[in-house]
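Appendix B: complex inputs.
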Amino acid sequence: MSEPQFVRSLPRHSGLVVRAGLRRLHLDPILWVLLIMVILYGLIMLYSAVERDTDIVGGQIARVCLALVLMAMAAQVHPARYRRLAPGLYAVGVLLLVAVLLAGVTVKGSQRWLELPGIGRFQPSELMKIALPLMIAWYFHDRPLPPTFKDLLTVAALIGLPVALIVLEPDLGTGILALAGGLTVVFLAGLSWRWILYGLLAVVAMAPALWFALQPYQQQRILTLFDPGKDPLGAGWNIIQSTTALGSGGLFGKGLHDGTQSQLKFLPESHTDFIVAVIGEELGFAGVAALLILYMLIVARGMIIAAQSKYTFDRLAASSLTMVFFVYLFANIAMVAGLLPVVGLPLPLVSYGGTSAITLLLGFGIIMSIHSHRS
Amino acid sequence: MASGMMIKDGTSELRMFMGRARLLFAAALVLTLILVARMLYLQVLQHEHHQTRSEENRMQMVPVPPVRGLIFDRGGNPLAENRPIFNLALIRERIEDLDGLIDALAAVTPISADEIEDFHDRLKRARRPFEPVVLKFALTDEEVAALAVNRHRFLGAEISVEIVRHYPYGALAAHAIGSVRRITKEDLDALDRARYSGTNFIGKRGIERFYEHALHGDVGTQWVETDAFGRVRRTLDVSPTVVGQNLRLHLDIGLQAVADEALGDRRGAVVAIDPRSGGVLALVSKPSYDPNVFVTGIDAKHYAALVGSRDKPLVNRAINGQYAPGSTIKPILGLAGLTHGVVDWEEEIVDPGWFRLPGQSRLYRDWNWTPTNPGGQGIVNLNRAIYRSSNIFFYTLGHRLEADQLAGFIRQFGYGEVTSVDIDGAVAGLVPDPAWKRGAKGEPWYPGDNVNIGIGQGDLLVTPMQTAAAAAVLANRGKRVRPRLLLASEAPLLEDDLPPLPSVAGPSADDWERMVDAMQDVVHRGDLGYQQNGTAWYHIGQDIDYRMAGKSGTAQVVEIKQGQAYDEEELDEYSQKHAWFIAFAPADAPVIAVSVLVENGGGGSSVAAPVVRKVLDAYLSEAPPAPAVSGQELANR
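Resulting structure:
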């Protein structure tokens, strides 16, 4: 298998000792630098969003450090082992999702959390963010691609099961994102354009039925997107306040800690799901653009790693984990900017909270593993 | 694995993957560019719009109500002051179960259905988020304590302090000062909302209403930064309030108390004016009411009782009560006769106790006429006609004058119009003339109308304020003044610049002096035997140590049929005659003119004159001291 020209980015004959050392530790320096930049950026913004509450920021630093350690550890494991682990991980994930429906903790009307003794609360759907792409990558690994119809049916079932379980919690937003993650793998595996067309047509045809299958509050969220002014103090509040925060920031923002929307609590969830509005308000368009550039560099790096890897599983796993990361960040920012309905989604690596950071960085650990074990 | 039959083609698979991956990355870039475009739209194109919205979010303009000006009497005694009360207020945004909370509060402090209804009305009005809305006004100390103890149970309820009006003299000066009321929704529609944005009260009667503009002051504003919960984080900018003007009145609360006391429990009015300035020294109308109940809110039942009472305590008789002037009009008519040359001081007529128009059978009787004793004052000239109050003389005089001459002359004394400057709600009364009678009654003017006006009856209607003003004109020998309550304000007011009224035209200086002499005879001519004494001498003139000029009057309430006696026993209380007395003193250099009306009181000299005497005595001896406010009032200050 010959390596295409453009993937020869890291010279193997590099004389740099540091790089060699990092290589031996299976750490991709580009990803590390980019990820840590985003994390530091996030911590600075979190510090502002929680009004300099050092307890909260300290806790977040501890969680992020733990997640970085886990990422480093994940990078040591050979990708082949992930491939072999994938079906088991997937099975555990599905079982946990079933467990959530049976014995989960209900918060704000949704049963999304499992109370694990000694560990605390845990969202099994987070695990699925990694397990599902790995599982599909595993499935396609030693099958000829593009996939056959039978393969597609099998994969549809593999994707459909966890997605359905997540939607039942109910957590429609995460369900759709899990679905997107799974479909990404299928698309990368070479799903024929004919089937893509059929799929799109099917979605359009089923749109009315899907609409009525939604819970009233979910319908409300979609309607609010189009007319937030209709109920400015209720359903429209979040979106009005977040667009006002972003818009009032202008090009360069009101200054760190000086965002009135966030500091005076007009902006809800300012340190969790809506933190990008704090960035937009306090650091302006420049701040948001900088974040987007960092994110896209990470995505680009992930895709390059995927392109450089030799095995089907490695390629599909690295690229789909990267795309899951992108889908999350896009959905979150689009939601805050009023382009998508409000769903409970954190901004990757920036929002306050541990689980999301841990799963995302574990994903990047796997990507690093794929890259550093490719020779 | 299941795909054993097919061989994986690594090269084509990689090529396909690369194509798809590029496509996907390109899609991600496009989506990112959409985000960038959206951010540019929000942050650059719509920046100003959102900037404004964000400022509106955090900046709240809080109106700061001005402190209402105080009202003092001429001696500096406070007639209207401000003091704090404690209200129970609810913050709607903090309350989940409103009805439940109100029920719980009602268990601690009584809350009426009216109060709950008013609360819901207030809740519907525009307000800032998290602005407390009052549920119950003016809590007692016990209620405040009970609520404070149970505060943890009442999330969203708070005790707020409010500065409200207080009238230390209560009912004593109610009709003179008026009162403020809590602003209603209807008031707001008619008000300058910006000016009143922080104000809860507005003057509704009397001085409080007339000088509302000066007393209110100007609202201040405070720009504050609030968080999403309405909590004020810091004050950004303040434009201070302009405190309402303090006003000082001519009113003498000591004299007011004397007049109030002298009138006692009878229904009636006392108005005292300084004839030199027109300053109203006393303005009493009884029965009165406690204006303080209107400040903190009066419930429907008590209000209905006040409005429905036959004694009409809310009616200010001094300015709104319209009565026939009776014989108090006679000095004016005498001057009218002299002016128009139909009588002089020497002419004498025979008063047989009745008067009959030529060619008519109807008898116009003297005041002391009875079926068995026609009475009569014998030989009467103008002087005697005043001090004996001869009806027959003035019937004759009225008959001799033309209707328009009568009306025109009477009007020169301020009757039929409002000449007072700042007496809110004063009415004009009525001076009838042929034109009015044709228009209002559709009847022609009869000679009998002249005759009736001759003794101040018929359609002639005047208020005690007007008779006091007329007494002041007599005291001033024709110079007119405008009655006014305001003595001094901190800044000039529009009302300061009214042009002076023209003096009464016609009577000579000698006529004025002789008329004042005749009015002195009413009081001082005594000890001369049957039908020789002034009508009021027996009642007030025997022990008087200053010279008073006065005139009694009695206004008929029900018409007495021809030939019937006026039997006081047969008439119920509310049909008895009204008693009048007007006077001024000292007669040659008057400093006070007074008018007293006692509704259904009977004879003017016997009932009204003693009230006048007490007022004059008090004013002329030395300034009467301000009455002490009650112990309760002192405790409340």
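Confidence is low (pLDDT under 50) at residues 1-5, 630-637 of chain B.
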